[in-house]
Amino acid sequence: MRAIRGRGGRRLFDGHGSPREEHLRLLAGASQVLASSFDLGEPLRQVARMMVPLLGDIALLDLLGPKGELARAATATADPARQGELPPGGLGGGALQQRVLSSGRPIVIAKPATAAALLGGGLSAKSAFLVPLTSTKGPLGVLTLVSTAPARRSSAQDLALAQDLAGRIGTAIERAQLYNQAKEAIAAREDILAFVSHDLKNSLMSLFLNVEMLHRNAPPDERRTGSKQLDRIRRGILQMRRMIEDLLDVGSIDSGRLAIDPGEHEMGALFQDAVELSAPLIADKSIEIKTEIPAAPFKVRCDRERMMQVFSNLIGNAVKFVPEGGTIVLSATASGTNALVSVRDTGPGIPPARLPHLFQRYWQADETARKGRGLGLFITKGIVEAQGGVIWAESQVGVGSTFFLTLPLATPSLRRAVVLAGEKRPAKRAPARINPATRNRIRAND
User: Fold this and answer.
1) What CA–CA distance (Å, rounded) separates 20 from 14?
2) What's the CA gap between 278 and 18, in Å, rounded?
3) What is the value of pTM for the model shown?
4) What share of residues in the chain are helix, strand, coil (percent, to 5)?
5) Does residue 339 sit in the same domain as residue 379?
């Protein structure tokens, strides 16, 4: 096979079995091995074995420890019998490795006499090069390649390949370190949240019980004058408790350990419970809340308590925007293996620029920035997805918004559309259709 050349006559491929092809195959194989796991113990040993005998008869990988000491991470030899002859520390007392680390440049030893003197006569070294392993934050270790065969001579191409390998090893080590640091940070955050929330919840509950006792045991005349203050304290305690529970839910969603207790629940009963729980929210603004209960009842598989949390978030979010005398409608349809549930409101609608941010953590619209914590829709998305569903929003400015979510049916064999309010609606669309020409839509998992 003839050599393939690029512009300017530079060789790109020398044909099957050529040294360049072997070098490219080594780089590709090493990259694949290093990307296979964040635990680099075995991948580093594999990469060291891949370098022998192409780049040398002995390959050593020494990594910097937390106190600046070098520790052997991987060893490979062309002759397994010589494995025990290699010193556990750096070759030649470690002075060469320290020089490479401090300078950040490779050292090439091309003369057999110099190699034997610097690396130790017991190795019968004829040539060697030492290449630094570096990251964006500094040195990580040293790659040492030693040739013991008299006929082998380290070339510039071998050095370039070793430097390329060292760069990939350094990137993999840095990536693994960042991953481990992130895991430790998440674990520490969860431990602190669990510890603090446990103590705070206990203290708040004790405070709540004392407030209830004061309200119950106070004389009638004092109860009338102090009831407003006690109610404010009670609402503050409940708000703080919800904040703690939201933070715990966010941590559980991030770690993929959100607790879900699924069961079979009738869709209409879920709507009825959600409306009852939301009654205090809508009473102050004279908002009407309606339910479009399917004519043919069906059950969904979900965690009832978590779904009450979802409906509370979606209805509470709608209440912030729906004007006096507005309407919120809960409806559902079933088809195939899923139920399509929607919460529709007659609010001002959501501008297109805001739609992509709805389900982001801590994001809030400017006009309601002080009315919440920006976690409700993020937690809602996590709960829906943990139950095997998806959630998204559609809106038209000046008309209103609709939040859709899917839940798995408890009876997946149901494959006919449910008729709502005497009208057969599409199985995979929301009960309220919006003109496609003016509709804005965003899926939470886009």
Assistant:
1) 6
2) 74
3) 0.52
4) 45, 20, 30
5) yes
